């Protein structure tokens, strides 16, 4: 499949309707995704990125329908991750000497993946590839989201090829922001930022400042996943600025797991207490073992505070709780408050262990947590409501 984006730019990629898990099991992609590759034709012809390896042959066939492969003067590899570089071996088996323009770090990761002595041409920010009547200007973007990541900007057409930045895991035949459901698109763009880019928010802020200081016109942002931003491309750039600035809404998320429902009863009573003390605060509850991790991380991203609950099992915490704690630790969230709760039978280590993990994850711990013996009765539930009220009041 291919379509024309501008007079000089064609999309040639793969819409992956059936993708449901990405990065192994780490990211759920309920709406599928796409791998976007772009063919830029001026006086010279350049391919920007490729697609994931399962689709390499179909990709090269589609590309051949657009252009004689021998006429491709250069391939830009903005990012070495296999969902974008996966078709390189197939393509380069046909055009082995084609120069690959990439960052210095991409040479390491591409060699690490493919072990090939390809014709690497290392570029740095500000370097240009001239297509005769227009230039591709390279902009290194280290840690957005790998050390090798890079953007490139096409002059005259005013197109930013932003690779994973500004992407969304979203399959749609329509491929443009103004043609798809805006709520779905916003949901996917936010989920993508929360789960992929949050740890790199300081780099996002710097890169946006750098892009703005280039003071170049921007007509299109062409990411490597999901739809192209064309209606007002600065909208998503402004959203990224907002999200990168330790984003939070008036929301508190409770994440818990339970064996015999005691900790669930606690969570629900704590939520009642929060709602009673702060009716405007949105409270969301997730049983971790039954919920989608990507959605939970997105809700933690939106929250000003999180409460994590586990009963004590074998002097520890439930494994699902350990899993989500590890996931949110890696997100390096800032300016978020937290506390722990849980039911226990005799030794009751879970609350202390969760608190410790939340502290290591950069959360500001509001109190020592709240533990309750066995199944809460009415008195226990009232204690939970009180603890919920005190928690939300202490947030200020
Ligand atoms: C397999 C198992 C191991 C447990 N280990 C501990 C323990 O080491 N220390 C403790 O205080 N309670 C322990 N308990 C008791 C639970 O923490 C207690 O039943 C609690 O109320 C369960 O809460 P829940 O229904 O939210 O899971 C254990 C319970 C089970 C079923």
UniProtKB/TrEMBL annotation:
Name assigned to this protein: Flavodoxin/nitric oxide synthase
Lineage, highest ranks first: Bacteria, Pseudomonadati, Thermodesulfobacteriota, Desulfovibrionia, Desulfovibrionales
Pfam families in the cross-refs: Flavodoxin_1, ODP
MF-aspect GO terms: electron transfer activity; FMN binding; metal ion binding; oxidoreductase activity
Family: In the N-terminal section; belongs to the zinc metallo-hydrolase group 3 family.
All copies of domain Flavodoxin-like, residue ranges: 252-392
Superkingdom, natural source: Bacteria
SUPFAM superfamilies documented for this protein: Flavoproteins (SSF52218), Metallo-hydrolase/oxidoreductase (SSF56281)
